[in-house]
Amino acid sequence: MFSPPFIGVVMVEPECDGTQLLKNALFAMDDARRAHLGCARMFEPERQLQADHRFHLENDMRAAFETDQFHVVYQPLMDLTSAGGLPLLGFEALLRWNHPHFGAVPPDQFIPVSEECGLIKGLGQYVLWTACRQQVDWAKATGRQVTMSVNLSPVQLMAAGIEEAIAEAIGETGIDPRYLKLEVTETALATEPALLVEKLKRLREIGVSVGVDDFGSGYSSLGQLDLFGLDFMKIDKSLIQRLGPCGRQTELVRLTIALARHLGMFVVAEGIEDREHLDTLTTLGVNVGQGYLFDRPQPPAQAIRWLLDEGWQAGD
């Protein structure tokens, strides 16, 4: 079958030798491939800088495991259906990287690189085991059982043996699977739906809950959403942060909540940053809230205070 070409175009510069010229053309061709079938792209010098940064980031990431640069922080998830104070329901475990020279590297920079170079599986296992152990330790220390949410990247989710790896983590750490919640991105749902349906079914048979993260930021097929048997939907913060007392954005969130209800899912809203957002989402019937209004992601020593408090009150 005929496949349209990808064309990379580069201008010859006096200081650019043949090797660099070919490399620049390949960068431009790769940009054309990512953009659209059968299109052409001019080389942009910033592309070389991005490639160099990615190369150094990947190399540094490989060494980071040996020097404890990665760590897990925890952001509280609050019950929005409770009258009065909002009690803690659980935490989301989030990976952070403290680079010895650059400081905190944003996840949206190092996670894509880790997916491309194959490190995401190791990072994902580290977060899963750390979060499960932390949940068990907190339960023993405080007598409270709360949920622990862990993200699975599309690469991690589609890898062979992911079900067995999660079952092993549950068995070895002793976490009750009913309190483990796995979040998959909306874009992952568009990857091999038939295979994904079977994977998610086996995961839920282990006893964990599975939901879609960042809903509203991708392009999942609404017609296929009911095939996956998901337990919850997390509405992307980009939708939440544009909420107002009325208007199209609020109506869009209302319709999203109605869709989740129709499919038997409970609803989580992330990115709640002010009281107005909270009031609107409570009125719309969102079950669970997460965001800076309640707390930023915290290391274990600070996060445990949520297990010792009664809940969150307005003005906290």
Plain-language structure description:
The protein is an alpha/beta fold and 316 residues long. It has two domains: 7-57, no CATH class; 67-308, TIM Barrel (Alpha-Beta Barrel). Helix content is 44%, strand content 19%. It has twelve helices and eleven strands. The strands form two sheets. An eight-stranded mixed beta barrel has the order 3-4-6-7-8-9-10-11. The chain has a two-stranded parallel sheet with strand order 1-2. The longest helix is centred in the middle third of the chain and has 23 residues, at 120-142. The chain is globular, with a radius of gyration of 22 Å. The mean pLDDT is 85.
Order of helices and strands: EHEHEEEHHEHHEHEEHHEHEHH
Order of strands across the main sheet? 3-4-6-7-8-9-10-11
* Strand segment tally: 11
Q: What's the domain count?
A: 2
SS-derived structural category: alpha/beta
Identify the notable features of this structure and list them briefly.
316 residues, alpha/beta, TIM Barrel, 8-stranded mixed beta barrel, two-stranded parallel sheet, 12 helices, 11 strands, 44% helix, 19% strand, globular
Which helices and strands, and how do they pair?
Elements: E1 7-9, H1 18-35, E2 40-42, H2 45-64, E3 70-79, E4 88-99, E5 103-105, H3 107-117, H4 120-142, E6 147-152, H5 154-158, H6 162-173, E7 180-185, H7 193-206, E8 209-215, E9 232-235, H8 237-240, H9 248-262, E10 266-269, H10 275-284, E11 288-289, H11 300-303, H12 305-308
Parallel strand pairs: 1-2, 4-6, 6-7, 7-8, 8-9, 9-10, 10-11
Antiparallel strand pairs: 3-4, 3-11, 4-5
Helix pairs in contact: 2-3, 4-6, 6-7
